Amino acid sequence: MAAVLTALAVQPGCDEREEKGIITKEQLASVYHLVELVTTRQLSSQLLQFEARGVEMVSLFNALLTGVNKDEVVQYVLALMDELLLAQPAFAGQFHSALYATQGTLDAFDPLLKLLSRQHLFTVEKAALVLAKLLSYDHFHPAIADAHAEEVLERKLSSFALWSVALLKSVDPTDGYDQPKVAQVLAAVQQLVATAPGRKAFIKADGLPLLLGLMSGGSYATHSAVQLLYVVLMVVWSLSYTPECAAKLAAAAGLLPKLVDILKNVQKEKVVRVTCAALRNLLAIETCASDMIGAGVMKALQNLQHRKWADEDVKIDVEYLAHALEGSLKLMSSWDVYAKEVASGRLEWSPSHKSDTFWKDNYKAFEAHDCATLKQLVDCLSSSDPTTLAVACHDVGEFIKVRAPAPSSTSRPCLLLPRFEAHA
Question: pTM here?
Answer without folding.
Answer: 0.78
